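Every protein is a chain of amino acids, and every chain bends into a shape of its own. The fold becomes a row of whole numbers, each drawn from a learned catalogue of backbone shapes. The protein below has been through that process, and both of its lines are reproduced in full.
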Amino acid sequence: MRIEAAELRLITLPLKFRFETSFGVQTERHLIVLTLFGEGLEGYAETVMEYTPHYREETLPGAWALLENLLLPKVLGRDFANPEQLWAEISGFRGNRMTKAALEMAFWDLWCKSLGQPLWKLLGGVRQEIPVGISLGIEPSLESTLEKVGQGLAAGYRRIKLKIKPGWDIRPVMAVREAYPEATLTVDANSAYNLNDIGTFCALDAARLDYIEQPLAFDDLLDHAKLQSAITTSICLDESITSPEDARKALEIGAGRVINIKPARVGGILASRKVHDIAQSYGLPVWMGGMLEAGIGRAANIHVATLPMFTKPGDTSSASRYWQEDIIEEGLEATQGLMPVPQGPGLGITLKRELIQRLTEKSAYIA
């Protein structure tokens, strides 16, 4: 598969609601739409990092510069038999996994289209729909939190995730558990705590949570292992897992019992499958995380989540929860907590070109 040219477009999508986490408040989503051109076909991807390095170290300006000046020139005009060959070409550059993942994902889409096959099938997926839950930000009041939880359960979502931070943890979580005793609940701390807060997590054991997501530092494994040995609730690792090697080390030392896979965070689709396989070797589940993706990234996540160990509901809820209008034609909508997998070649999506053009703040064509 020959990569002949590429296009970058920086766009901003307004969110339908105010989304607060321990990082801060988000009201819009900034992303780069990457298109690869080759042999009469197009492959698509979107980036997930923001302007500021709050989630991990990468930033949107850095991703643009790296794609335009280094990664794309490295692969343009080249033939690659499969995604493994492309990854081998760019893997020597250290770090920047989210940026490299965008290039790899776009090539997956291009390559699958050249073979006339959907991504999930060539990846080894085993299901036609995936279970999904919702992630709720930190609400301005307890009443608003309970209302949003009720709405999510009424819509059929199979897991409710509550964002927490110091000062907003035990009380809202226990209130939700009391109001909805049978609901599958989880919490996500986004690295807002340390081992001095162990009492908080011992108290949360009483909430019968399915897991506590990334309670400690974004780059830590050792303290998570200490915390996991002190509480009964499973720890789910997110920001700490940036590669298959991280996953292996974390599970070896007992730093958690669940892994949240975000393909961009771990370096792309190939790396996601390797993290999945490592978890499978330990007999532990994974689930698909989310980073407020628009339609391109959401579709890619859905395809990856068809692998067999994605047994817990993920964050890939209906696109209409987030956007007045998505950047793809296909409506990625869950019904009773199940998200259908797009069935066309590659990602199985079609870009809304006029919308993307209207939203474009900056563009570049590289050939």
Residues 12 and 30 are 4 Å apart (CA to CA). The domain at 121-340 is CATH 3.20.20.120 (TIM Barrel). The chain has a mean pLDDT of 96.
